[in-house]
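Hi W., the glutamic acid complex you wanted:
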Amino acid sequence: MTVRVRFAPSPTGMFHVGGARSALQNWIYAKQQGGVFVLRVEDTDAARNKPEWTEGILSALDWIGISRGSYEGPHFQSENAGEHRAAAARLYESGRAYYCDCTREDVQARTGSQYQGYDGYHRDRDLGPGPGRALRFRTPDEGATVVVDLIRGEPTFENRLIEDFVIARGDGSPVFLLANVVDDMTMGITHVIRAEEHLPNTPKQQLLWDALGVKPPVWAHVPVVVNEKRQKLSKRRDKVALEAYREEGYLADAMRNYLMLLGWAPSGDREIVPWSVIEEEFRLEEVNPSPAFFDEKKLRAFNGEYIRALPVAEFIDACQPWLTGTGTIAPPPWQPEEYDVEAFAAVAPLAQTRLAVLSEIVPNVDFLFLASPLIDEAAWTKTMKDGSAELLDDAVAAFEALESWDAESLKSTLEAVGADRGLKLGKTQAPVRVAVTGRTIGLPLFESLEVLGRERTLTRMRAARLRLV
Ligand code: GLU
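Structure:
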């Protein structure tokens, strides 16, 4: 039997990191089993679906390594509507489903409870099809439905506690629960690996498989992803869109490595490992069923490590979208013609060790490309003290006299200016840094001045001096 797994997102919003995690787990499982990964876009909720969300899912999957053309699909649930209706009709004809025209109020009036499920009123009333009549599945009165789940063992659900649930609405349209089963069936899916949130649906879905006469798939419900307060990650509260992480400058390799650690770990005391190791070592059966904490701080630290491990040339390339404002990434504060890739390449190795996310490159190098630096006023006030004006005068004079404009000479020259006033280098360089870059922190100063060049450095120092008059 060829293993066939599917990832079945609904295009109702930005692609969620939890979805990306499930997609990767499906992807690896298929690869390990020599199976097939199917992408199915569940687009039958017409009110909430938008084509751009589908495109967002495809491009996000591509970004984390599930590239277009390397899987089966995308198939669209809406294309299978005929099969969904045919299955509903078969269930009715075989007596496994019946029509019902009760409203919620009718059921509540009969049961006297607002919370109770459907009471089976039309089970044996032979209502027959008609407008406004929903089709309900006749659940067994006895026995139990045992779900075979690779992660959770055998969750068992008593059938008498499962109400006669709706499978097609009053307008004849099949509900999601049925469409999802019929799609898995027609696509020959053998393993359903999906989020824990769907576990409550699973006994109902398995009853549908049985009633339609097909052996159900093996299930694997992967843990819910939670924030630091142990709340399920939600788009209203948390940063959940994979695209948001991409735009902030997370590397795809760091992201997918981190996502695979939600509920699982590679052998030894390792967390940061090459993708090939994850593909080899990952075991779906070893995934911890408890909620998985999505720790953004840890992800940032991971990303910093991945950035530092890049060859410099790759780091330079990886930064370009933020330096040029490509695609959906916000444009940098300088004019495009002011950007100089060679100047950037000269400071890139210094920047590479300092970033946690690639977007942080912009404030680190903006001094190089802006006509005049963006002055952080708080930093200015904190740094420019009594004596700063004179110090800048002396530094300008000493820099003007320099024969060679290089980091070494700049450093020893400024060191000497400070020593004359009994100042350590740290104190001496602070006003120069703020004058030239506008900030108190940033790349190593003397290398920065070397790349910025004599003329621009001196112009900025003189301008700062004038402000201090
Ligand atoms: N379309 C469903 C969702 O996005 C997935 C259902 C499934 O995986 O079975 O939550």
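The chain is about 45% helix and 10% strand.

W.
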